[in-house]
Design goal:
Layout: E1 6-8, E2 15-17, E3 32-33, E4 40-41, H1 55-70, H2 76-88, H3 92-105, H4 110-122, H5 126-139, H6 144-156, H7 160-173, H8 178-190, H9 194-207, H10 212-224, H11 228-242, H12 245-268
Antiparallel strand pairs: 1-2, 3-4
Helix pairs in contact: 2-3, 2-4, 3-4, 4-5, 5-6, 6-7, 7-8, 8-9, 8-10, 9-10, 10-11, 10-12, 11-12
Length: about 290
């Protein structure tokens, strides 16, 4: 589990500040969440049963650190900007910390959770990322990017059916998103539904002819449908367009498959049996 920067009330769903004890909306007693690991402890627990942290001291330490980092006048928006810049530069631990601070200051800001989730996804923690992307989608249900990234997180955990639900939603909200059709097609191929994947991958390439992964996924689907010649054709077209090593590997693999099939065909070839002269249909003039 993870602590995302707020305490959600079990009674009304309101997002409260991390140090709240009672819900600021309905007054219900809030869960005793560890700010280090996110584990929900018994209401009267002093130590976290998951990581052993002293719960009250952890909250006090977090409050002290937050006061220190905000003493210069930083607000949630500034932390979100810093988180985005850090994430784009590949500094995911730093990006998550900035986004975490933003969530502490503004628990209702969905971008704080999106940036935390992105850092987790890129740090190979898709399950945790999906939790935060779901929370962000609940806060802002009109943002197709959030659903796209939630779909990616679900895909990375092998939850292909749930991921497809997200990609289908994105297709309704942003029908010209090429990457969305490619991701949808990838899920279908991963489930073995190669035929259904093809029109989605074709749509992805129609919208973005330079999408390398769509070429790869289409070659994969065609290969498993027994259409190696078509798979090779799309691979070679993809390599001519974007020239990635992954597409070249597909093209080389398919060439070997076709060559092996031709060799086997030659081995299995049996010439027609010789017939007697009387069966040739030629007249015997002797």
């Amino acid at each position: 589990m993870i602590f995302d920067g707020s305490k959600k009330c079990d009674e009304c769903g309101y997002l409260n500040p991390y140090d709240a004890i009672f819900c600021n909306d309905c007054g219900a007693k809030l869960p005793n969440v560890c700010v280090f690991c996110g584990y929900v402890n018994d209401p009267d627990a002093d130590f976290c049963i998951s990581c052993g942290a002293l719960l009250k001291k952890a909250v006090e330490e977090l409050a002290h650190n937050l006061t220190r980092v905000t003493s210069s006048g930083q607000d949630a928006g500034r932390f979100i900007d810093l988180a985005y810049d850090a994430n784009m530069a590949g500094r995911y631990d730093e990006g998550r910390q900035y986004a975490f601070n933003a969530a502490l200051l503004e628990p209702g800001n969905y971008l704080a959770y999106c940036n935390q989730a992105f850092a987790l996804l890129r740090s190979n923690r898709p399950k945790d990322a999906a939790v935060l992307y779901r929370k962000a989608a609940e806060m802002e249900p009109t943002d197709p990017i959030t659903y796209t990234m939630l779909g990616q997180a679900l895909t990375n955990t092998g939850q292909y059916t749930d991921a497809i639900d997200m990609f289908r939603k994105v297709a309704e909200m942003a029908p010209d998103n090429a990457g969305n059709y490619d991701s949808w097609g990838f899920c279908l191929t991963s489930m073995g539904n190669y035929k259904a994947a093809l029109p989605l991958l074709e749509k992805a390439l129609e919208l973005d002819p330079e999408m390398a992964t769509a070429y790869q996924n289409m070659a994969h689907a065609l290969h498993h449908l027994g259409k190696n010649e078509e798979a090779l054709e799309i691979s070679e077209k993809g390599y001519q367009t974007v020239m990635t090593d992954e597409i070249k590997e597909w093209a080389d693999f398919l060439k070997k498959e076709l060559a092996a099939a031709e060799e086997q065909k030659q081995k299995d070839f049996k010439p027609p049996e010789q017939t007697d002269e009387g069966e040739t249909g030629e007249e015997d003039f002797d």
